[in-house]
Amino acid sequence: MHRIMLRVLKLIIAFVLLWFIYYQVKIHHAFYDFDLKFLQQSTFKFYLLLVFLLMLINWFIETVKWRYAIKSIICLSMKKSVAAILSGVAVSFFTPNRTGEFLGRLIFISKNKLPDALSATWVTNMAQLTITLLAGLTSVCFCIDYFFESKQIQGYIILIAFISFLIIAWAYFQLNVVLKKLGRSKLIAKKYQPHISVSSQQLLIIFLFSMLRYFCFCLQFLILLYALGCNFSLILLAGIAVQFLLLAIIPTMVIIELPLRATTATLVLSQMGCNESAIIQATFLLWLINLTLPAIAGICITWYYKRKH
Length: 309
Prior knowledge:
By secondary structure, the chain is an all-alpha fold.
């Protein structure tokens, strides 16, 4: 009975996910306004293929990073690790700011190792958030002239960004202290307390993996914008980092995620001289390639895995 209910639940999740993808594609005006002439150009197809390959590299890096983080807890094959990562992408579609990504991954972890695996996954997520915040804050300082004319306001914002940068960087390398306190916390039942330790060297390596992923994100967006007619510049790259910063700090739900991505990208990148239509179309394509395709793959993989086990 339990297995039947589980399968029905997975069918419902798969249906909702596919419906949501269809709904986003259908209502989003970027789909209707998409300039089909670009799709007919061989150069654009090349750029699209390049972005797709970077997506594969991106999730491969995430897989390696996660395997490294949990290697002291459990040894998963590369195949099962990829399945766990994609399963997490599928589940994250239904949680605010994709915070539920770890739930899909933990399907592949034995119950007695869940607390430690959850803690290790949390560390990898914090590393990705940290690089997003640090790169975004740095970029704010470089392109602040595009958003504020007042030198006084610029000075205040740069000061706030600098202080925030130092605090966030310091906080990231204190994550091991947090894990130790959680392991001794009386507020958490003993069987749920984590018992892992992450050294500063491990935190640094996980952070470097996160930097590589972040570079892939930025490069993908930059390639799409360039392919759709925007001029390449370092300021545009800084603008992309600012947009990712906004997405990281603004709470969002799944139903408004795509419009929010398009809105923040337009608000920021239009200041750098990018065409609004190109920005929206690039945002849509990035969402489709980076999140939608992996999420569909994750649903299929999770279903197959549970049938085999």
